[in-house]
Amino acid sequence: MGDVLLVLSVPVLVLASGIYAVCACWWRREHPAPPSPYTRQAARLAEQAMLVRAEEIVDGAYAALGPLYAPPAAPAPAAAPPAALSPRPDSSTPDRAPSRPAPARKP
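Below the sequence we write its predicted structure tokens.
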């Protein structure tokens, strides 16, 4: 009887292995593994997530600090400089006058 059980256990083992292979294959198709952290696709996904997060940070900072950099509603009129400090166009100053020619050297 021991030999009969041994002979019948081989087909049962092959049948069980086949059923396991079919179930494992079906399970992997229905539940794919997440992408490996070392693939290019995972790197692109991480980069996109980082850019989205950076945009959120910049938008939040702009919303919080934007009013500080807004220009005033109406600029103040520019005041004219006092008459005593404004230069006269017809007056020449020493730094604007033509320079004197250099003295001639004797050979």
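Residues 62 and 69 are 10 Å apart (CA to CA).
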